[in-house]
Amino acid sequence: MCGIVGAIAQRNVVPILIEGLKRLEYRGYDSAGLAIVEDGQLYRKREVGKVRGLEALIAQDAIQGNIGIAHTRWATHGKPSTANAHPHVCRDKVAVVHNGIIENHEQLRNNQKAVGYEFTSETDTEVIVNEIYGALENTDNLLGAVKESIKKLEGAYALGVVAKDHPNTLIACRKGSPLVIGVGIGEYFIASDVAALLPVTQRFMFLEDGDVAEITIDKVVIYDKDDNLVDRSIKESQLKADSVEKGLYRHYMLKEIYDQPWAISEALEGRFIDNRLQESAFGHNAGEVFDQIESIQILACGTSYHAGLVARYWFEKLAKVPCNIEVASEYRYRKPIVPPGTLVVTISQSGETADTLAALQEAKKLGAKYSLAICNVPESSLVRESDLVMMTRAGPEIGVASTKAFTTQLATLLLLVIAIGRRFGLTKELENKISSELFSLPGKIEAVLQLDDKIKQLSEQFAEKQHALFLGRGTHYPIAMEGALKLKEISYIHAEAYPAGELKHGPLALIDAEMPVITVAPNNSLLEKLKSNIQEVSARGGQLIVFMDETLAAENDVNVQIIKMPPVENEISPIIYTIPLQLLSYHVAVLKGTDVDQPRNLAKSVTVE
Ligand code: G6P
């Protein structure tokens, strides 16, 4: 999704902006650009494609300056093109970079056209820069002009603004889209997320919704949504510049798959005292909130939604508490019912997914009194807007296709299952069993990672395929869904997941020798049923790949290939069976030569609706 970087310094900011854009590449984008104010001129460069293309363009003209804004664009309004790339400029005087969507852009566009503005792009952003230009005709104060202009905007935005006649001022503001201010020594920066600025600072101010900041070389002045002067404290980020680098791994995704043993240890670290889960890990008053809970509603998108689907099985089976889950983008418009005593659990890697945030707000409007976020980004909007929080601590996840964020979500959801389950009769024995299984996860994941070479060989059968089916049952049905999503996202092979029992109600018609069927078959109470489903596929000539417990007596057949998995307990099994499916999609994508970490058309953090 779009990324913003800006800087004001006594040194040339162009390299800072370019490095920042490169560090935002992981969010997904299709074009990039920057604008610099220097020597009474506003210079702009834009390019479709990668940031290195923009870098080459800038090198030709040797642009430099002490103040500038830059952007990676992920097309929403208007195709990826140079004309639609940001920054947008009005009459060579004002430049704006924008993340978000302006919902009333058509109306503003018509008003502006009526008074003579000409449009050079199809974007919703151009109306913003025109508004600011217009406001500057009545004031010589850039801050005042931005404040006036944003009053007219409906929708979501994070903005960076510079103007030719205001070479010492950078304006930043946000409503519904994230924006941080990086604090350097005698210099300031802005960015959509901290990752962009780690090489230049680890000190950040997190703007709140509705904030407008006026940034000059020696100070930052911030006004809140009611135009009150406010202080936003400076927080030190724990991230180091190299924590978002891929080291010796060929792709971030592979590194992040291999990070999982460590990430899960981090997720569990400090959450138990004397082997007992501490409820304060969810927030200081978590125990009191959990005492009021009668049911759970989970809201999430994408991979995080799949984590919620697994958790629903756990909440009902292990904790014996009623649990619903819904894709956030549907929930927000459905007028659902939120019974008293509902704990709304949002799950999000980024904590900035617009639909998940909006669904949480909707749930609150509908009467939800208690909310809990499972999230990977401590400073995110979702964390700020939730009563209770469980950080997944997976570390920065750069690959667009989520891997370690998912498995740490699952591990932390099991912690929540324990905490809530205590109130609904989860026995001490089962609690202890789940806890010790959780601590065994890093070692077990290491063991599954040993299958990497085998899975790589297997992936060769996929490179030419157009479609694939994934099957699972129970908690492993969402794992099959996640496997299918991974394959789609990064290899562009059409993949669908079905609960294996549903096969005969339609998808069986698709089975032939060209259709690989990947089955997740752990050793649990549904295994015998699953074996019958496997037979149904095999009898029709389908090519089966079955991930199965090594203790089970099963051998390869003409059209059945078995990948033997280490034995694993039921409760944590979905986490373990995720790993081979991640590796499989990764290797298929590498063979197909796709852009593994930044698959086409996708964004890491979807901050627009
Ligand atoms: C995007 C990403 C997915 C992610 C989803 C939800 O679509 O590409 O990987 O699962 O957003 O993101 P969240 O940050 O809320 O988990």
From TrEMBL:
Catalytic activity: D-fructose 6-phosphate + L-glutamine = D-glucosamine 6-phosphate + L-glutamate
Enzyme active site: 2, 604
Protein name listed in UniProt: Glutamine--fructose-6-phosphate aminotransferase [isomerizing]
Gene it is expressed from: glmS
Subcellular location: Cytoplasm
Lineage: Bacteria, Pseudomonadati, Pseudomonadota, Gammaproteobacteria, Methylococcales
Role according to the record: Catalyzes the first step in hexosamine metabolism, converting fructose-6P into glucosamine-6P using glutamine as a nitrogen source.
Highest taxon of the lineage: Bacteria
Keyword terms of this UniProt record: Aminotransferase, Cytoplasm, Glutamine amidotransferase, Repeat, Transferase
GO biological process: amino sugar biosynthetic process; carbohydrate metabolic process; fructose 6-phosphate metabolic process; protein N-linked glycosylation; UDP-N-acetylglucosamine metabolic process
MF annotations from Gene Ontology: carbohydrate derivative binding; glutamine-fructose-6-phosphate transaminase (isomerizing) activity
Keyword Coiled coil assigned: no
Domain Glutamine amidotransferase type-2: 2-218
